[in-house]
Specification:
Length: about 425
């Protein structure tokens, strides 16, 4: 999930602010939806298709404030962020109190095709928060562990040709780490570049996309192919993603070594020196881990074993089925059970448009004409914005409630979400 804002972000919507007095605390995190998703779809996909591994998880502190800083895959769609977020939550029992919060570029919420499979308000329902300096500050003050990508938009848009090459880190996380005395826990992501290895960037084209469509890049050839056939936008190859969590970095000690004496208001130039130093150390460690774990990113033998073991379950484990299975799972939570198998298929006819050439306009039209939970017919503009999540969420206007403490020893689900966890 992205870390920095991007051009074309939604402006604050005054109709969504409190009108009389301070706003009541509210948390859009939908833990029941997440548990349902993990148990029935994403857990089997991570365990069977991506065969994810989480190493060094003991380095994650049980409570915050803390910053988990990860490298992005540069693959135009943040499967790495989704997988890491889910695995961390799975490891800690899938309890609301144990959920890390992610900060992401607001363009992920306001652009509907950047919400996975068109699921409304997906990122916030999964615990994400719009990335601004103030929001990040408030999360750390609240005592959260924040999942953060210091490369920002350039990290997700660097493309396959620059795989494993860390882009320039934003420096704001150093300022906040020193202010809140929060450790930075480096997270090294290996093989995620191979999930979408057909993602290349062309800067002149990216500038045009940013200017006219409000999105920072158009991956080639994946983007144009997805325009022709919508489900290809979510295509992902079965690379075995490996996440290695390193030892916490004492940012306060690094800041003092760089000559910063006022930790609450550090000098900007010295903060940049600290951020660059953290980037250099993460790059060195990432390069070594790629040499160790990245030689065979797909590991097809283990994929074949998992597919054979799961049998017919494989029909929905691959990306060809995700645009159908994920929205249906979400919709089924908000409507009566289907009368029979034929009714279950026909009532989601609009999802077939993902497989229709040039089907994006038809998908948008279907969403406008169908009633909830399949569309927005009958909703007021405000209700639709709330449902979609197409507004800028400022924690100053819509605060989160005080967090509860982490829960240890929580019951684990039956379906493994990760191949290994150490």
């Amino acid at each position: 999930m992205q870390a920095n804002s991007a051009p074309g972000d939604a402006k604050p919507d005054p109709t969504l602010r409190a009108e009389d007095g301070p706003a009541l605390p509210v948390d859009p995190l939908d833990a029941d939806f997440l548990r349902h998703l993990m148990n029935h779809l994403y857990g089997p996909i991570m365990g069977g298709y991506f065969r994810t591994r989480l190493l060094g998880a003991a380095n994650v502190p049980p409570q915050g404030p803390a910053i988990l800083a990860a490298n992005h895959s540069g693959s135009s769609f943040p499967y790495d962020g989704i997988a890491l977020d889910g695995m961390l939550w799975y490891r800690e029992g899938m309890r609301t109190e144990n959920k890390c919060r992610s900060v992401y570029a607001k363009v992920l919420s306001v652009t509907w095709w950047m919400r996975p499979y068109g699921i409304d308000n997906f990122w916030r329902r999964c615990g994400g928060v719009d990335m601004t300096f103030d929001n990040f500050d408030r999360l750390l003050q609240r005592g959260d562990r924040v999942l953060y990508y210091p490369e920002g938009v350039p990290g997700i848009g660097k493309g396959f040709a620059r795989r494993y090459q860390l882009q320039r880190f934003a420096s704001s996380f150093v300022t906040l780490a020193t202010k809140h005395r929060a450790p930075v826990i480096p997270v090294h992501v290996i093989n995620a570049e191979w999930v979408i290895p057909f993602s290349f960037m062309l800067k002149p084209l990216d500038r045009l996309m940013e200017r006219f469509f409000g999105v920072p890049f158009l991956p080639l050839p994946a983007g144009p192919l997805a325009v022709l056939l919508p489900f290809l936008w979510y295509l992902a190859l079965p690379a075995r993603m490996i996440f290695v969590i390193g030892k916490p970095i004492d940012v306060v000690a690094r800041a003092r070594a760089a000559g910063i004496t006022d930790l609450d208001n550090p000098d900007r130039e010295r903060v940049r020196v600290v951020a660059d130093g953290i980037r250099d150390s993460m790059q060195e460690r990432l390069t070594a881990l790629v040499a160790r774990y990245g030689r065979w990113p797909y590991q097809l033998r283990s994929l074949w074993r998992e597919m054979r073991r799961r049998g017919l379950q494989c029909l929905y484990l691959g990306p060809w089925a995700w645009v159908w299975s994920f929205p249906r799972l979400d919709r089924d939570r908000h409507r009566p059970a289907a009368r029979n198998a034929l009714h279950a298929f026909l009532r989601d006819w609009d999802l077939l448009l993902y497989y229709v050439p040039l089907g994006w306009p038809l998908l948008a039209l279907a969403r406008r004409l169908r009633k909830p939970p399949c569309g927005y017919r009958g909703l007021t503009p405000r209700e639709r914005r709330e449902r979609e999540g197409t507004f800028f969420w400022n924690l100053a206007d819509r605060p989160l409630p005080p967090r509860e403490g982490p829960v240890a020893g929580a019951e684990q689900p039956t379906e493994p979400a990760a191949g290994e966890a150490h």
